[in-house]
Amino acid sequence: MTIKIKKCTLEDLQTLQKISTETFNDTFKDQNSPENMQAYLERAFNLKQLEEELSNQFSQFLFVYFNNEVAGYLKVNTSDAQTEKMGDQSLEIERIYIKSEFQKHGLGKYLLNQAIEVATTLHKEKIWLGVWEKNENAIAFYRRMGFEQTGVHSFYMGDEEQIDYLMTKTLL
To answer: Is 142 a catalytic residue?
Structure first.
């Protein structure tokens, strides 16, 4: 079992889009209407949107490889790329996406640790993320990893407002 990390570039755009839509759909399709899922996927993961995100100097995308296959990715944001104003001393984990066939291999924890490493390298004091209030497995995982709920914000799935818990971990 080998696990590797590689920074995503614009040449990876098609792969990034495929993993994004596949993992998001696999994770949330059963709890949302097909219309809202389709609207969200088209808005969040179209090639123009992903290209803008990849080109943002304050965002990083890292692919994780499991036995030489792309298994998922991590997206982190700092500065103005953060989806909430959390200050310059914070790093946001916007996405940890693992393809379903690669789950239960410790890759989520591996990517979370990569995010902490990035935050430490950038001298950030806190790391934070938003997680859907109904995603109990993810909430339990983040709690085990030392995150605490520090707030909430709205997340729109198509035309439906949903609530994300904001969870934060202090690094210093």
So the answer is: yes
